[in-house]
């Protein structure tokens, strides 16, 4: 279609050029013919004037007018023919031009006569919008008129060549217009067909979504355009599929990283920020692509490190505390090559809060364990040294010291056993899930705690259903939880107090609740009561005994069994511990050694 339009334009230009050249040639030939006829008439007019006798002035006589009318020319006698008259004549003609000298055979063309009479130049000037006037001056050889020369003028009619030219232009214009309409029609038809074929592509691009293919397949037809579209569709779909798979893999990897990843270009615009970055810096879950870094992240350390990397192009690292509940973050910034001699910055952020906390807990654990072991060891050494110094001679004192040594050794053994049990619980290797009756298991724990309760004058109240409560869990772990809570309640309850234990079930869980009327705990102690070696009543620890690991074992065992534990307390009114275990855990463990009963706190 474009070739057709080009051919139409070439044809139009060629037609205009040929028409213009033809018009110029035809008009020149027509003017030459008119000049030849005008010269004949002028020569005949001069001969007629010479043949007659005219009264002066001749131009005023009626015969002069009749002669002009009969010949169709204007006759003007000229007295002199000097240079001034010539200039005046040229001025009268205006934008006149000399057409040509008379032909060499001018005498033959007018039927004889003097060559001197026929000598003269024909001049032409415009006589209107489409007319011309011819003028020639011829000399007089007789004295019939009081003049030496006669100027002959004649106004030409409309040129038929001009009419033919305009007719040609009109025909050419109409033809070009018709051809243009035909070309536009075919072009519009082809464009409409292409738009119709491309319409499914437009609809597909408006709703890309998560489709595997970007463009629908084009049914091949008998046209090069359809074949090209089908080839383009296959290529684009293949490239789109490859890019989408690569992007999905990148998002999968970056989205599951714990470290925050941030990429910035050389103009401080964000190129990438994964989900971990949003979480670590408390950023809304939005798309920050190509947004300024300082507009999104207001952390001075990150802006400072990024600027340093872009300026010096060297890696740098820094540790900061972020947020109201401080997070310990390690920030590492490295240069990132972006191509075309451009360098950005790649910032990775690692949350080391848990590592710091674990280190702190580890140090506290070592310090507390050392302190707890140091006390019974010191007591045992003191009693042994006393016996060595002569207390063995006093049987009563020796028996008392030996009893104290045995009690301190038992305390040390309980502390070691508790730490070993807590370690096995944290590893998860000491659990054996089986179906058992929780009511029967709790009754044996209550029976074991009754002896200590009677010795202190504490009453234990039991509220369990008469029917079985089937629980699929670790029986020894469940009994350890119940025993530690009962022992803890009896230990911190004064004489004449009470400890109540209840067991109930709902649709999906079993709830164990132990309530005592003991000394209670302050709110700040309640937050740390499940930590290792922590005792709310430090000044009474020497009297109540315990290792400080009972409630910590309860917490870790409950979590290992898939349950939760909660504590509420009020100073002077007692404490309440509630354990909720699922009836059917998410998965069962393989058989493993049963848990030893640990000493309660």
Q: What is the domain total for the residues?
A: 5
Number of strands: 17
Mean pLDDT: 76
How is the biggest beta sheet arranged?
Answer: 5 strands, antiparallel
Strand content: 15-25%
H/I helix tally: 17
Low-confidence stretches: 81-87, 89-119, 539-543, 589-601
Distance between the termini: 96 Å
> What would the principal axes of the Cα set say about the shape?
rod-shaped
What is the percent of helical residues?
Answer: 40-55%
Q: What is the topology, as strand order, of the major beta sheet?
A: 1-5-4-3-2
Provide an overview of this structure:
By secondary structure, this protein is an alpha+beta fold. The protein folds into 5 domains: 2-163, no CATH class; 208-249; 257-351, Beta-Lactamase (2-Layer Sandwich); 356-407, Helix Hairpins, CATH 1.10.287.130; 428-582, Heat Shock Protein 90 (2-Layer Sandwich). It contains 17 helices and 17 strands. It has helices at residues 2-51, 62-71, 83-93, 106-109, 115-118, 160-206, 224-255, 275-280, 293-296, 300-312, 353-388, 395-427, 438-456, 475-491, 523-526, 541-544, 550-560, and strands at residues 74-78, 97-100, 122-126, 132-139, 149-155, 260-264, 270-273, 316-322, 327-339, 342-351, 433-437, 459-463, 470-474, 498-505, 509-516, 564-570, 574-582. Helix 13 (438-456) packs parallel to helix 14 (475-491). Mean pLDDT is 76; it is low at 81-87, 89-119, 539-543 and 589-601.
């Amino acid at each position: 279609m474009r070739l057709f339009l080009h051919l139409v334009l070439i044809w139009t230009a060629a037609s205009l050029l040929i028409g213009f050249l033809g018009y110029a040639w035809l008009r020149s030939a027509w003017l030459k013919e008119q000049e030849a006829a005008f010269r004949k008439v002028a020569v005949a007019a001069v001969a007629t004037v010479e043949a007659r006798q005219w009264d002066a002035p001749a131009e005023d006589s009626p015969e002069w007018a009749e002669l002009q009318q009969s010949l169709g020319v204007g006759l003007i006698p000229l007295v002199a023919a000097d240079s001034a008259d010539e200039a005046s004549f040229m001025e009268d003609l205006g934008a006149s031009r000399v057409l040509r000298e008379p032909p060499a055979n001018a005498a033959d063309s007018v039927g004889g006569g003097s060559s001197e009479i026929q000598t003269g130049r024909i001049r032409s000037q415009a006589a209107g919008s489409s007319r011309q006037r011819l003028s020639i001056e011829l000399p007089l050889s007789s004295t019939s008129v009081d003049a030496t020369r006669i100027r002959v003028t004649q106004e030409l009619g409309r040129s038929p060549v001009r009419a033919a030219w305009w007719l040609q232009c009109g025909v050419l214009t109409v033809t070009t217009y018709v051809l243009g309409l035909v070309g536009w029609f075919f072009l519009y038809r082809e464009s409409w067909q292409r738009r119709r074929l491309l319409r499914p592509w437009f609809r597909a691009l408006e709703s890309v979504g998560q489709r595997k293919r970007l463009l629908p397949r084009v049914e091949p037809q008998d046209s090069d355009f359809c074949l090209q579209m089908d080839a383009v569709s296959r290529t684009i779909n293949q490239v789109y599929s490859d890019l989408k798979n690569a992007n999905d893999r990148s998002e999968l990897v970056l989205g599951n990283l714990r470290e925050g990843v941030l990429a910035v270009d050389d103009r401080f615009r964000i190129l990438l920020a994964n989900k971990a970055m949003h979480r670590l810096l408390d950023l809304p879950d939005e798309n920050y692509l190509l947004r300024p870094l300082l507009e999104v992240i207001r952390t001075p350390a990150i802006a400072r490190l990024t600027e340093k990397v872009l300026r010096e192009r060297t890696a740098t690292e820094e540790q900061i505390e972020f947020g109201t509940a401080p997070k310990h973050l390690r920030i590492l910034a490295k240069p990132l090559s972006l191509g075309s001699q451009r360098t950005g910055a790649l910032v990775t952020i690692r949350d080391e809060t848990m590592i710091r906390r674990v280190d702190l807990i580890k140090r506290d654990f070592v310090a507390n364990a050392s302190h707890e072991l140091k006390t019974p060891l010191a007591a045992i050494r003191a009693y042994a040294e006393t016996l060595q110094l002569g207390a063995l001679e006093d049987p009563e004192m020796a028996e008392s010291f030996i009893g104290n040594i045995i009690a301190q050794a038992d305390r040390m053994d309980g502390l070691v056993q508790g730490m070993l049990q807590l370690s096995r619980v944290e590893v998860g290797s000491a659990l054996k899930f089986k179906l058992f009756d929780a009511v029967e298991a709790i009754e044996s724990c209550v029976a074991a705690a009754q002896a200590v309760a009677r010795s202190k004058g504490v009453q234990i109240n039991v509220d369990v259903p008469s029917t079985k409560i089937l629980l699929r869990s670790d029986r020894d772990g469940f009994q350890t939880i119940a025993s530690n809570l009962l022992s803890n309640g009896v230990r911190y309850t004064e004489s004449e107090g009470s400890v109540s234990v209840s067991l109930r079930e709902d649709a999906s869980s079993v709830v164990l609740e132990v309530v005592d009327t003991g000394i209670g705990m302050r709110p700040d102690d309640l937050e740390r009561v499940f930590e290792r070696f922590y005792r709310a009543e430090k000044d009474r620890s020497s009297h109540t005994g315990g290792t400080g690991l009972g409630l910590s074992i309860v917490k870790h065992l409950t979590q290992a069994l898939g349950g939760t534990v909660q504590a509420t307390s009020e100073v002077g009114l007692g404490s309440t511990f509630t354990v909720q275990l699922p009836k059917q855990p998410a998965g069962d463990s393989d058989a493993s050694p049963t848990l030893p009963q640990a000493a309660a706190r």
